[in-house]
Specification:
The chain is an alpha/beta fold. The chain folds into two domains: 251 residues, Nucleotidyltransferase, domain 5; 162 residues, Nucleotidyltransferase, domain 5 (2-Layer Sandwich), CATH 3.30.420.40. The chain has 17 helices and 24 strands. The strands form seven sheets. Strands 1, 2, 3, 6, 14, 15 and 16 form a seven-stranded mixed sheet that branches. It has a six-stranded mixed sheet with strand order 19-20-18-17-23-24, with helices on both faces. The termini are far apart.
């Protein structure tokens, strides 16, 4: 009987499921969408039970698809989750309120206050190896205490999205180093909870955190009732899982030094595995831990495909028009520059920023130029913050990777070969690969050597003549950024 391994990716817009065999071949897929609560204050929230319902649907779809291909047993399951979300439970383990998400910016003032209480950003880096930014989990806790004290008084368990799903699957509350490193209350060098950070909010919080487990430890096996609901064996092993970026790193083979992954999803991220923590942390770089025992320095911008989709909607266009319009326009968008900060911004740290369009004239105002300037703005934002990394190739994932023209923009603007993994769902694949490694007792690197493959047809090679054009356009982007926000 074929042994399969299941990866589940709980993202901002929906949950995906992927079943693979030990060679990395896909046997089944599933997907279910999430709703989103948004307010003008910058609040972005979701009900955790939406994730459970979506995961159930996605897994059932994947299992049904696989059943049509033959008999199998699912030996392992791993969960990838959107980072930084705050899930709070009471003594009865009941969810107290909707989860505040990674792109929630109404906690900006609380983040500033926490950093101040800890002696400033430099002091945070010196003590804990990382400084909290708006979007990290820690500011959400202070916000809850200040804005909803009745809810805060009930808090007995503090969890991240993927940890909440693991708890639903197994009944065990635990955390792993990768996702924990994005909370703002985790020491990324010592790899322990940073009690001093939590004490700056409320000393009782330290007792609300889950236990920490290693990258090769299992959370447990499925609860019988959950196994029955999902159509899986109760002996299925649940691996630690991790944040979506950490699982995306595994799913792109970013488990050895020298590999660079760039994700163009709702947010845009760029990260590269390191054996040891960074000695000096460049501004804008989050020195996260990986979910494989090492480090995963990361740059994250809060605006990517969401901005592109909004521009398409404003222009009355569908996503199918992207490649055509990019092909009809030229590098630099004929002088138009877009600062794409529709959600505020995290890198640079501008949580209250608004999006802006500059350089419009009677001759350059066109749908093609507006769309190109938007995509260039998104791309420039993450590349400008990533000068700390040296790459010979970039593995591109996320919705933006589906566009041949956007892949070419990344290649031309970076001067680096761009490759796309054969399996699009890198977070799902990484989670499934981790489940394979943990349940079978294999190293994650050996699993990556077998399971990660590149779609050669989607490779984009940089065109040397365009590099200078993009360099000029990026410089214009930086000048606009400095003029508007002083950064």
């Amino acid at each position: 009987m074929r042994e399969l391994f299941l990866g589940v990716d709980c993202g901002t817009q929906g949950t995906k499921a992927l079943l693979i065999d030990a060679e990395g071949t896909a046997w089944g897929h599933g997907h279910a969408a999430h709703a989103l609560i948004e307010r003008e204050s910058g609040a972005r929230e979701q009900e955790p039970h939406w994730w459970v319902e979506a995961a159930t649907q996605a897994i059932q779809q994947a299992v049904a698809t696989a059943k049509s291909k033959g008999e199998f047993v699912v030996r392992g399951l791993g969960v990838s989750g959107q980072q930084h979300g705050l899930v709070v439970l009471d003594e009865a383990q009941t969810v107290i309120r909707p989860a505040k998400l990674w792109n929630d910016t109404e906690t900006a003032a609380q983040n500033e206050e926490i950093v101040h209480r800890l002696g400033g950003a430099a002091a945070c880096v010196e003590k804990f190896g990382i400084a909290p930014l708006t979007g990290y989990t820690v500011s959400k806790l202070l916000w809850l205490k200040e804005k909803e004290p009745a809810h805060f008084a009930r808090v007995r368990h503090v969890m991240l999205p993927h940890e909440y799903l693991n708890s639903w699957l197994t009944g065990r509350m635990c955390a792993e180093f990768g996702d924990a490193s994005g909370t703002g209350y985790f020491d990324v060098r010592k790899r322990v909870w940073a009690k001093e950070v939590l004490d700056a909010i409320d000393p009782a919080l330290s007792g609300c955190l889950p236990e920490l487990i290693g990258a090769d430890e299992a959370v447990g096996t499925l609860k019988p009732e959950v196994a029955e609901l999902l159509g899986l064996d109760a002996a299925c092993v649940v691996s630690p899982g991790g944040g979506d970026n950490m699982m995306g790193a595994i799913g792109t083979g970013n488990v050895r030094e020298g590999v660079v992954t760039m994700s163009l999803g709702t947010s845009s991220t760029l990260y590269s595995y390191r054996e040891e923590p960074m000695e000096t942390v460049p501004e804008g770089v989050a020195p996260f831990c990986s979910s494989t025992g090492g480090g995963l320095p990361l740059v994250c911008t809060m605006n990517a495909t969401n901005v592109v989709n909004s521009m398409l909607a404003a222009l009355g266009l569908s996503v199918e028009a992207v490649d055509r319009l990019l092909a009809e326009s030229a590098p630099g968008a004929d002088g138009i520059t877009v600062l794409p900060f529709l959600n505020g911004e995290r890198t640079p740290d501008l949580p209250l920023a608004k999006g802006s369009v500059f350089g419009l004239t009677a001759t350059n105002l066109s749908a093609g130029n507006l769309l190109r300037a938007t995509i260039e703005g998104v791309t420039f934002g993450v590349l400008a913050a990533s000068t700390w990394v040296t790459a010979s190739r970039i593995l591109l994932i996320g919705g933006g990777a589906k566009s041949a023209q956007w892949r070419q923009i990344v290649a031309d603007a970076s001067g680096v070969r761009v490759e796309v993994p054969a399996v699009e769902e890198a977070g799902c694949l990484g989670a499934a690969m981790q489940a394979l490694a943990v349940s079978a007792g294999k190293s994650i690197a050996s699993v990556a050597d077998i399971c990660v493959r590149v779609d050669e047809a989607k490779t984009a090679l940089p065109v040397a003549e365009r590099f200078g054009l993009y360099a000029s356009a990026m410089e214009r982007y930086k000048e606009r950024l400095k003029a508007e926000f002083g950064v």
